[in-house]
Design brief:
The structure is a homodimer.
Chain A (H helix, E strand, L loop, with lengths): L4 E2 H8 L3 H10 L6 E2 L5 E3 L2 H14 L4 H13 L8 H33 L4 H6 L18
Antiparallel strand pairs in A: 1-3, 2-3
Chain A binds a DNA duplex (30 and 30 nucleotides) through helix 2.
Chain lengths: ~140, ~140
DNA sequence: CGTAAGCCTGTACCCGGGTACAGGATGCAA
DNA sequence: TTGCATCCTGTACCCGGGTACAGGCTTACG
């Protein structure tokens, strides 16, 4: 009942730009599909699942490179021993995210403190030391992004 | 005791690449300094304060464009009525950050759920519906970055 | 005065995740 | 068979925040 999908159809079904499909293909996230005699891509229905997986993993904070690894981790099934690397990666990613949350919470706390102190001019704040903002530590990195 | 700073000195004092100073100057974050007869930049000591402000604001989650606004908000002093826009912006930024935290917390919860469920293959997870990961909602944006 | 360290300019490149555009070739229906 | 939608390819561009490099000039010290 559902034959192969053309790229536009798949893109629409997945809520993704059509160029993005090509992009994912280049990045090795999406397998190269069969082509029609004239060279048009014809995707199997499973491609939609793959895209869902990609989007979900991305939403979970994995980069496309990481997603690519996760994907052919699933398809290759290294050896046939059912390895636990997905859990390992998820655990690692979880602590990354927890670190990011902690960082953002520190930032939020600083902002709240500055608001409470009623600062209204950063230049002044930075010179008079009444302001709770941490102007000193320049060696820290930017906002956890 | 502290005369004008040369660009390398300022860069080092601020813990910033020297190119970054030029970059900030182009972006309008750092005022164009006086030049030596031969064209070398000579920064007043206040430039270091400005850099501290920039770095701090950046650390608080403001983009460089926003920092630029904040900076000449402080220097221009629109009219002479002491406006509360710094507070407004800080408040807005604070809720942005709180939203990001909430988003990351939802993500962390998903990851924890997936770990608890013992998922080890995303492709399988996406088809069998035993997995707690939200594969359905493709319309959401990527990770709050 | 010579020489080395430091500075100048413009331009190009990096990351990650796409998006846009031009100029042809196909697919499908009437 | 014609016409229009869709698809193909390659290449270039976008965002944000810088960084790198080449080729030439200045400054400071001995």
């Amino acid at each position: 009942m559902n034959g192969p999908l053309r790229s536009g159809e798949l893109a629409q079904a997945a809520g993704v730009n059509q160029q993005t499909l090509r992009y994912y293909e280049r990045r090795g996230l999406l397998a190269e599909p069969v082509r029609s005699p004239g060279g048009h891509r014809l995707y199997p229905a499973e491609a939609l699942t793959v895209l869902r997986v990609i989007k979900t993993a991305q939403r979970l904070g994995f980069t496309l490179d990481e997603v690519a690894e996760l994907v052919d981790l699933g398809t290759h099934r290294h050896g046939r021993r059912r390895d636990a690397s997905l859990q390992k990666r998820a655990t690692a990613k979880l602590s990354e995210i927890e670190a990011r949350i902690a960082d953002l919470q520190a930032i939020a706390a600083s902002l709240r403190a500055a608001l409470a102190a009623g600062c209204d001019d950063l230049a002044t704040c930075a010179t008079t030391d009444c302001c709770p903002l941490p102007f000193a530590d320049l060696d820290r990195k930017g906002p956890a992004s």
